[in-house]
Amino acid sequence: MNFLRRLSTKAKVGTGFLLSYSSFELYMHLRTKRLINDRSEGIVTELDIETRFKSANINNFFVNPFEEYRPQTAFEFLLVRVIEFAESFYANKIEIHDKYPTADGEFAEVGDLLKTFRPNYELMRENSLILRLCMASGNYKSMARSARGKPPVRDQMLFTWLGQSCCLVQIGGLNILTDPIFSDHLLSKNVGPKRLVKSPMSVEDIKQATGGHLDLVLVSHNHPDHLDLDAAKEIGNLATWIVPLGLKLTLGRKGIYNVIEMDWWETLPVNDCLSGGDGASLPDKYEVLCVPSMHWSGRHVVDANLSLWGSFILRRNGESLLYHVGDTGYCKDLFDTIGKQFGPIKLLLLPIGQYCPSWHQSPRHISPSESVEVASQVGSTKIFGIHFGTYKLSSEPILEPKNKLLQLAEELGTDEYKVPEFGLTYVYDLSKIKAPDGFSASRKN
């Protein structure tokens, strides 16, 4: 007590704040552990696992209901930012400007290895136009016809990586954008990491590529590297925004009202959301599922976990076509559950970067080896490893995630675990993508 009396007023206020904050963090940790234990004790059947992984909110803050998760405090957050600031000098000197060893024993600059390609605007625009004409006429026969050696439009899936977890995906002429991020600087022109490779497309380019028909924007969470609010304002209400709970208000401040919030395990029929309602006539039934991920949210320290985070699965007629993971740590039971309920899944968009230092990152991000495990669990033969090479956000070398995933693919004898090139449009025939041997079809149809 004598020690406290000798402290200055500012020191007393600071000590009081630290004690209050530490007490709050301890309280939240104990409440979360109790919630996890209570849910675990209630599991009787396999299907009860889905109930175990329902979203959880304590005192208006979302929490992770996963035993594998370790929450980070503000102290850890600030410590890691200091470490990253120090490492940025090393990264800028060694990893960006110096030569990098390649697989054939030669050396190249990182900038040469992170190449940018021109997207296939013509094919995207053509498919989008065909779908809109079919919607207008009510006749979808042309969607099922092959032309010039390409699969029918209905069976075409086009994928273009724009950086981080931002991807433009076209399925049967429908256009979907994930986690939009186009800015050259993560936070501002004066603060935050600078983009290593410029985005291959701008928002205006996307409008041109889709013929002005961007149908859906899927946002996994509100971190600045997954949601560019300037780009969001530019997209506006052109598309239907599908986001986790709590993000509608953020987008509303940018004048975006065409927003649907989803909770974990919810299913959203989206035909009525497509092309101003014209999608209601589509012969195929599209739906988006929101599934859990092990991560956190917040654009600033003070708004941490006030909104939910999650992943999305796009389905057509009960068949899972696309799994946009966003960000997640690894939880075996969770991915087993997703695989049993919604697998097999045609294509996985998996984050493979930002996993070092592991003591800090592993509760929130998966590594390349864990991405391969996820693919096996959810029943997919095709991976696109993304969420790397765009900004320097963690300790692993910039190209390490790519090299590790490709090495794993080689060891497994598959060329379907890919790391996409920036801007290059990949074309798939959905009818020819098969489930892994021995993987049974999903039970929820």
From TrEMBL:
Ranges annotated as spanning the membrane: none
Gene Ontology biological process terms, A to Z: N-acylethanolamine metabolic process; N-acylphosphatidylethanolamine metabolic process
Metallo-beta-lactamase domain location: 175-388
Pfam entry (one): Lactamase_B_2
A GO cellular component annotation in the UniProt record: cytoplasm
GO molecular function: N-acylphosphatidylethanolamine-specific phospholipase D activity; zinc ion binding
InterPro entries with a match to the protein in the record: Metallo-B-lactamas (IPR001279), NAPE-PLD (IPR024884), RibonucZ/Hydroxyglut_hydro (IPR036866)
Record protein name field: Metallo-beta-lactamase domain-containing protein
